[in-house]
Every structure is written in structure tokens, then in C-alpha cells.
């Protein structure tokens, strides 16, 4: 099997997100690059978008509202591809009631499910 390097759009998105290599941090450009990479099923980009939406960095600059439903969507995409941290973050969203569920029983069951998935994938914080 051929091993590939991290996808270029995701890496360039990281450059803009963190302000690396002499670039100023630009969350809008980072988000746009992560979105392009996420459409190509790049789990790291999906996880990054989940984080940006959870923390209120996913929308255009100046609009810092959080969007937990978008965070859930992107974390779910990444977790279903084996991203352990995204599985953990999904558990957190459910545990804290940041996404809507039928009731608390369902909410805690989903939180437990995602924490267990994170642990099974090897995420140490989930243990």
C-alpha cells in the first residue's frame, strides 16, 4: 500500500489557522481550505472544522457564534473515519447537552457511546 502525505489543502489550512510560515492567522481562509479538504473526505480537515464550529471560529470573520450542530456533523464525519479525538469531542457535545436529543437518557447514552468509541480508537483522555 502506498503511503501518502497529509493532504495539501488541510496543511495549507493549518498554516492560515495558526499563522505559520510568516503568514498572518486568517481563520476565514483556514475554514475555506478545510471545507474543500473535508469535501474530499479528509478526516483531519473534518475534525478541524468541527473544532472551529464548536469554538465559534467556523463562520466568516467577525461572526463568532458557535454552531454545535455543524460541529457535531463534522466531528461525526471524522469519527466515522477513525479520528479518535473527534469521537471524544462528540461525546463531550452530547454530555454537556450542546446538541439536541430526545431526552437526557438518549443524550447520556450517545455521550457514552462516543466516549467508548474514542477509547476503542486509542484516545487516552477517554479512558
TrEMBL record:
This is Sel1 repeat family protein. SMART domains: SEL1 (SM00671). It comes from the Eukaryota. Belongs to the sel-1 family. It holds the Pfam family Sel1. InterPro entries: Sel1-like, Sel1_AlgK, TPR-like_helical_dom_sf. Signal peptide: none annotated. SUPFAM superfamilies: HCP-like.
Amino acid at each position: 500500500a502506498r503511503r501518502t502525505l497529509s493532504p495539501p489543502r488541510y496543511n495549507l489550512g493549518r498554516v492560515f489557522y495558526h499563522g505559520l510560515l510568516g503568514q498572518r492567522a486568517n481563520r476565514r481562509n483556514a475554514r475555506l481550505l478545510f471545507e474543500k479538504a473535508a469535501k474530499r473526505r479528509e478526516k483531519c480537515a473534518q475534525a478541524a472544522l468541527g473544532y472551529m464550529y464548536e469554538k465559534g471560529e467556523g463562520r466568516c470573520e467577525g461572526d463568532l457564534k458557535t454552531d454545535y450542530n455543524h460541529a457535531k456533523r463534522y466531528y461525526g464525519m471524522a469519527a466515522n473515519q477513525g479520528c479518535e479525538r473527534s469521537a471524544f469531542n462528540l461525546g463531550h457535545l452530547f454530555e454537556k447537552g450542546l446538541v439536541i436529543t430526545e431526552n437526557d437518557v438518549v443524550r447520556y447514552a450517545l455521550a457514552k457511546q462516543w466516549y467508548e468509541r474514542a477509547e476503542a480508537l486509542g484516545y487516552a483522555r477517554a479512558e
